[in-house]
Specification:
The protein has 32 helices and 23 strands. The longest helix has 16 residues. The protein is globular, with a radius of gyration of 26 Å. It starts with 9 loop residues before the first helix and ends with a helix.
């Protein structure tokens, strides 16, 4: 039986309640906390203790053997004066473990489990069965003062907490944020290729290009206002593009279509359309129109550039192989990276943080899967596929290899990938200054195209925008109602919502083994102080990772699982993960510089990011979790089961998505028909007629609308 810690007086101490723990950090704790964290990656398990198959040298010079408590969790135990014990069952996957523990009453051997990694759906089901402790009640009782303060800052409207609530209105877990209100996935481009094409006159390729029925998508612009960033400040320029001057229209009319004619036409067009900006210092060269802080290219200009790339393989790579735009790999969720291109036409939902939901400019919840604009965009992608701008069998993987990273890793190392939409750190790490032997030198984050977004503001015409926001993830952790140390569990939960606690979870113990210098924290609030052991990233003060870790070969090959396996950090449990890890783990200086550029544009308002803190509307990110009543779930199933909607959009790991068949085959394709169950786009859209009134009504009710 565990000794029970009295919570008496903790709520009165507020934030100082955690601060007082420092004086106890050297004492041997007399009570324990049983924790289950079981993150699985392939055959590897990561949790509170070391789970490597063989013993290994730890970073601090000690030896890690099987089931040794990892440095981060040893430090957590000292910080909150509790003995951390591992309650995970590593013989099972997380899903199987959760099923077993919820059935057994959260018992490991003779011990009650006090904290357990969970996801929103599983915690909701367990909460409805009365098996979890209410975090809402703990907040009300003043037992989570640091988490309360964090919520007041980051969820002032309460919409985030509401989205996490079970059907009784109570929240039963603390959430995990893989960063918060910053860009998750983004467009990246090989800047060296852009410069070689547009800033130099070269021996362009003359092999005939594939053609399609793709037509200009950007309407004529007459002194259109375009928001950009110049010298670190938000600025508006005016752009005029008559319909007959549209670059896609011009390229489509060429009698001879090849890399040479496409490129010469694009260069002449850019020099004419952006003559003012090329002479007033906004752009110093044509490539700046796409790659600089002041980038202002539109969707048609991007497609025109992709054509130039795809049909200049010998000029750009010295071989017959090049990929204008490719996904990371063939898995279902990676196939989405091709479909994500539709955002360049102002189509929303594909990059949502929750399914394909988004808020329109009136705050109405919309499901992008039921919108005609989405399927019109798929028609465009089909035409671009016919032109060869995507890999022929992108849903099969590079050389038919479905393994993770096949396109991204192989093509970047070979210097044959021009553009992608993916996570920045794990992509730009393949630049030559980060990966030895790579032939890619400058694969960098770029601003998305300017689009005439339907934001409800008639004073803004074209601007950069993304809804791909790092926000509330599906994971977190919860306290079983059967725990015999609820107070201790709350104590650790709350500590993670201080800078000191979050940094420990992200970077490991506060020593020079893990950090460049010992970081100083406020004795009372546990807020991080700028100075030793920290660096500034876009105005944000974060912990600097030690050189010994940055230079570690295992860290370079997979930093996140290195942290989980060797240190015990970066687990998907209740806290907000630091942006600084991605930035430093990226390792490529080209990547760091390009991310700084994007961040500056977000800060000055020229690049708009949907956020969780914005009021429901165009600039708001839809909550990751929306818990709906069981009766509404039944109604939703009834209204969607005969529409093939779910089957068409399902993203199984080793399967081709319905929308990929549509991109490859078009509506007449055999596989497309099998996935949709109909013959035409209109027939598919007609099956969604009742969904808005039933399906979305349930979700709006859950959101309190």
């Amino acid at each position: 039986m565990k000794k029970t810690l009295s919570i008496l007086g903790l709520s009165a101490l507020g934030i100082a309640g955690v601060a007082s723990l420092g004086s106890c950090s050297k004492e041997d704790p007399t009570e324990s906390l049983d924790i289950s964290i079981n993150y699985t990656n392939g055959d590897e398990h990561y949790g509170v203790t070391y789970q490597g198959a063989t013993s290994t040298d730890a970073l601090d010079g000690t030896t890690l053997t099987k089931n040794t408590i990892l440095p981060t969790w040893k430090a957590f135990g000292e910080a909150v004066n509790l003995k951390i014990r591992d309650a995970a069952d590593y013989t099972k996957t997380y899903d199987k473990e959760w099923e077993e523990y919820t059935t057994s009453g959260f018992v490991k051997g003779k011990n009650q489990i006090d904290l357990m990694m969970c996801d929103g759906k599983k915690s909701a089901d367990a909460a409805n069965a009365g098996k979890l402790y209410s975090i809402s009640q703990a907040l009300k009782d003043g037992k989570l003062p640091n988490y309360k303060k964090w919520l007041e800052k980051n969820d002032p409207s309460g919409s985030m907490m509401k989205s996490m609530a079970s059907t009784d209105g109570q929240v039963y877990y603390t959430p995990y944020f893989d960063g918060l209100n910053n860009i998750e996935c983004m467009f990246m481009m090989n800047r060296e290729m852009v410069e070689k094409l547009l800033d130099n006159d070269g021996d362009y390729d003359t092999t005939a290009a594939k053609t399609s029925n793709f037509k200009a998508q950007v309407a004529a612009m007459n002194n259109a206002k375009v928001t950009i960033s110049k010298n670190g400040k938000k600025e508006t320029i005016e752009v005029t593009i008559p319909a007959e001057k549209n670059i896609i229209t011009q390229q489509n009319k060429l009698a001879t279509k090849n890399g040479q004619t496409y490129t010469q036409t694009l260069k002449a067009y850019l020099n004419e359309i952006y003559a003012t900006q090329l002479t007033n210092g906004t752009f110093s060269k044509l490539s700046d129109i796409f790659c600089s802080e002041s980038a202002c290219y539109n969707a048609d200009e991007l497609i025109a550039l992709l054509r130039c790339v795809q049909y200049n393989p010998k000029y750009l790579t010295g071989t017959d192989e090049i990929y204008a735009f490719a996904p990371r790999a063939a898995a279902g969720n990676r196939q989405r990276q091709i479909a994500a291109l539709m955002q360049i036409w102002g189509v929303r939902g594909m990059n949502s943080e929750n399914g394909k939901f988004y808020y329109d400019n009136n705050g109405k919840l919309v499901d992008g899967r039921t919108q005609q604009a989405t399927y019109d965009a798929f028609d465009n992608l089909h035409e671009l596929y016919n032109e060869g701008l995507f890999p022929e069998k992108y849903y099969k993987g590079y050389n038919n290899d479905t393994a993770s990273d096949t396109y991204r890793k192989q093509l970047l190392k070979a210097g044959k990938l021009f553009m992608a939409y993916d996570y920045s750190a794990s992509t730009m790490v393949f630049n030559a200054d980060a990966t030895s032997g790579s032939k890619t030198t400058s694969f960098e984050a770029i601003l998305p195209p300017v689009v005439q977004w339907n934001d409800g503001d008639n004073t803004t015409d074209y601007f950069h925008y993304t809804e791909d926001n790092r926000a509330l993830k599906s994971g977190g952790w919860a306290i079983p109602a059967s725990s015999d140390n609820i107070d201790g569990a709350l104590k650790l939960m709350d500590y993670m919502f201080t800078d000191e606690g979050a940094d420990l979870q992200d970077y490991g113990p506060n020593t020079t083994v893990y950090r460049k210098a010992v970081v100083e924290y406020d004795a009372t609030t546990k807020a991080r102080k700028a100075g030793n052991g920290t660096i500034d990233i876009g105005g944000q003060n974060v912990v600097a990772i030690s050189n010994s870790i940055l230079n570690n070969a295992s860290f370079k090959s997979g930093w996140n699982n290195f942290y989980r396996k060797m240190i015990g950090s970066t687990q998907g449990i209740g806290h907000q993960r630091s942006d600084g890890i991605d930035y430093q783990a990226n390792l490529s200086q080209h990547g760091k510089d390009s991310l700084a550029k994007l961040n500056a544009c977000v800060q000055n308002g020229s690049f708009v990011l949907a956020t969780t803190s914005a009021a429901a509307g165009f600039k708001a990110s839809v909550p990751t979790n929306i818990t709906i009543a069981s009766a509404d779930s039944t109604a939703i199933k009834a209204c969607t089961e005969n529409t093939n909607l779910e089957a068409f959009w399902k993203e199984n790991k080793n399967d081709t998505t319905g929308y990929s068949f549509l991109i490859v085959e078009g509506w007449s394709g055999t596989n497309t028909k099998a996935k949709t169950g109909v013959e035409t786009k209109q027939a598919f859209l007609d099956t969604f007629a009742k969904i808005d009134s039933i399906y979305l009504a349930a979700y709006n009710k859950a959101l309190g609308k």
